[in-house]
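If your schedule permits, I should be very grateful for your opinion on a structural question. I have a record of one protein: its chain in single-letter code and its fold written as C-alpha cells. Would you kindly read the sequence against the C-alpha cells and tell me how you understand this chain to fold? Thank you for your consideration; the sequence and its C-alpha cells are set out here.


***
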Amino acid sequence: MSDFVFAPAPVPSLPVAGSSALFPIHRIYCVGRNYADHAIEMGHDPSREAPFFFQKNADSVLPPGADFPYPPATKDVHHEIELVVALKSGGSDIPAGEALGHVFGYGVGLDMTRRDLQAEAKKAGRPWEVGKAFEHAAPCSALQPAEQTGHPRQGAIWLKVNGAARQQGDLNQMIWKVPEMISYLSGLFTLRAGDLIFSGTPAGVGPVVRGDRLFGGVDGVGSLDLAVR
C-alpha cells in the first residue's frame, strides 16, 4: 500500500541520444543575461557583473518531438535559444576547476518567456516565475553525453523562425562560462544529479505566434525543431 495520499506524478525526464535510458530531471536553473549583446538589447549594462539565476519547474520541460502550446494570460511569448548543461552529480561550493567533472552532457533548449508578464513583474519588483515557469516553458532536445561531445567552449548557437534567422551567436561569447556557472550556482544551492542549467541566450530574442516553426541548435551538440500551436 502506498504511503502517499495520491499517486505521485511521473518523474520529468529527457531522452539520451543513442540510448534507451532517460535522464531524470531534478531542478532547472537558468542564468540571466549571459551574452553581452542580449544584455544590451534588454537595456542592461553588459559588464561582467555577478551572475544571477532564476528557476523553471522540472515539469516545465517539453521533450523533443512535441510542439509548444501557446500559453494562456499572455500576448507576447518570446523565444530564447540556449545551451543546456545536464549534471550527473553535484554538491556545494564546487571549485570551477572541478565543475566539468559533474557534467553528464549537453542539450539544446528554449527558455520560452511570457515577456509581457515578466515585464510587469520587473516593474513591480516581483519574482519572474509567472513569466518563466509556466507549463511547457522549457522545450529541450535529447541530451548528448559529454563523453561523445566533449565540453563545448565555442560553436555557433542559432535559431530560425519559419526559416528566417532570428538568433545567432557563439558559445565563446558567454560572459560566464560553464565551469564558472556551476561553481557560482553551487554556492547558492546544493546541486544534484539531474539538475539542468540553461546557460543564457544570444541577442535576437523575439515573439512567436501560433503556426510558427522554430528550428535551432548548437553546433556539435544538437538541434531542436518544433511548432507553436
